[in-house]
Amino acid sequence: MTTLESISRAAESDATRITGRVARYALAGVRIVNGSVALIAPSVIIGRFGESPARDSAAVYGLRMFGIRTVLIGADARWSRASSSTQATPQAPRRWVSAAGWDGAWASRSR
Fold this sequence. Notes:
It is built from 5 helices and no strands. By secondary structure, it is mainly alpha-helical. The chain has one domain.
């Protein structure tokens, strides 16, 4: 392999790493915003579908339950110390199970 090829591969690797990081942060931001709206103001989302939040308490419950999960997954994606998907992948099931535990805790609190 020539020096030029190795420089080209290193630059490609850096560009891929930067693009991945930007995509991860963008997705984390979207998850945090959408999850926060679902958690704090579920009536906004229900109203966008043309339903009445007062008549549809199941939708409020569902949005809050998945809202906290979405916020936690977004926060984890944003502030995780894992630098690549190969490091983050083995940790994902454990983190998502704990997010499901938060869903249940939040749901029981709102009753």
